[in-house]
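Async update (no meeting this week)

Hi team, since we skipped the sync, here's where things stand on the single-chain job. The sequence we agreed to prioritize is pasted below, unchanged from the tracker. I ran it this morning and attached the output directly underneath so nobody has to dig for it. Comments welcome in thread, and please keep replies under the output.
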Amino acid sequence: MKEMKYKLRVSPKYEKEIYRIIEVSGNTTLARLQEIIIAAFGFDDEHLYMFSLKRKKYDQDGFYAPGSECGGRSAARVKLGELGLKPRNKMLFLFDFGDEWEFNVAVSKIIESETKVNKKIIESQGELEQYEYWDEEDDDESSFYENNSSTEKVAGKIGDITGIIDFGLEEDLLQLGKISGLKTEILYQDDLYQVEKCELTMEEVLQQTESKKLERLCAALTLKVSEEQQQNAKALANHYGQKPENFLGILTAEDIEFLHRLLKKDYRGLMKGYYVSSPAWHLQALGLIRISAEEIFYFEIVEDIDALKAAVEHQMQERELEKECQVEQIFRALLRLYAVIEKEDFRYLVSDCAQWEVDEVYFEQFLVKQNLFWERLFCYKDKAGNHYYSWYEEKEISQQVLDNRQKYKVSRYEKFDQKYCIGLIRDRTETTIWCKRLVRELKPYAWGLTLADCIVEDIEDFVRIGCDEDEFLDKALDFLREFEISWTQKIRETLKKVHNTYPSGGLKGHNWYDNSRNDGSSQISMFGDLPFFSI
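Output:
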């Protein structure tokens, strides 16, 4: 079978004399391409990244590292040959959202190959130092106390120690607290949210947003949708100026809480809260804040944001936002766990898990409407006219989940614990011991931990949709071959254990084993009885 061979020239944006010329197959996923590029430059790959065909940093239509929660599509699900690239086309590869390494990826040649295309570096020129600012003296224990400005700051403070430090120096600060007998609190510089006034008006910020998103915003705020992007931005900005409180209708409780803390400059609250990237991207999409291109966690409040202050304060007083934030997290966690759920059952399951009666008005007007608007929920009807909410954008996958439920006769939903659901959304969830082991087993074959994690994440999805052991092994092993991973008997056995212990949302929160019983049914295993490992 013929393959398309891509010859790519990869160079740092501002150092074009340094480059790598590589050959890869068109079947290479962008996640794998990232691994190849980073290995070619000798970089550490434990960082977030994204690709942009528009050559725009943090492009909302870009392709992001799985789990980055920055919008766009997963780089693990898109192949190079699916991008429609032609010779002389370029795309941006942004690596490490802290240091922001920008690489131009230019297509030099695309040719048809009669043989299997293996990745290889054809030409290499120049070297890059990933951590060139690193000073080995920082590792010296005594130099911390002599040179670190945070220590000077905390030494004169009575009652406790607050240090703003770099990663790797936690032990020094904790030791200082132990010696002094004072309470020690560690704040990381990267976690501090800095806020400044932005000279741009809201209209100017909105003009930088894509027309399609502006149309959705206009529709949500019942504005007549204009054809031109600039007109959309102007109409939206004018509407905001007249009735800023209308914007709160499409902000989640987490968004309002986040905005409140930004306006109050409550950086500690932001650090300790449960909001990370999602509210920030929501507020940016509405033109209320701008995330600086220099630092991903540097927020600039647009000039006319103060008009919202009164409306936000009113919401803070009138609504139980802390409780609502928890319900929002539970809503998304249950949707993720169940995968596809009957509309009429969902509200009762959310209420049961939240231990709070979620009334129909709040459920529809806030939870459903806002998750639909921000594309974290999908609705559709089956052939019989029943309404469903789905975690999956593709209706075909949702239907496959429902078909599997009929096949395995799973009739009820397993109930989940509130603490587990909130942990799931905050990325402190539990995963099976076997999933963690599979990551370790794949690491030597997958060019590092990041790619191994991404592979296991996709393999977990096969289980979530629901399939028997043979189907699962066929899918998983075919998937591994795409990454040129030759599976071993050890990997195969671990895959079996992953299948038999990982929670299958597609089967209403149950796991199941494909061990036929005497009555011809499959054995169902309850979620709570399984071996889990807390990460």
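Quick observations from my side:
Confidence is low (pLDDT under 50) at residues 132-170, 186-191, 526-535.
The two ends are 43 Å apart (CA to CA).
Reply here if anything looks off.
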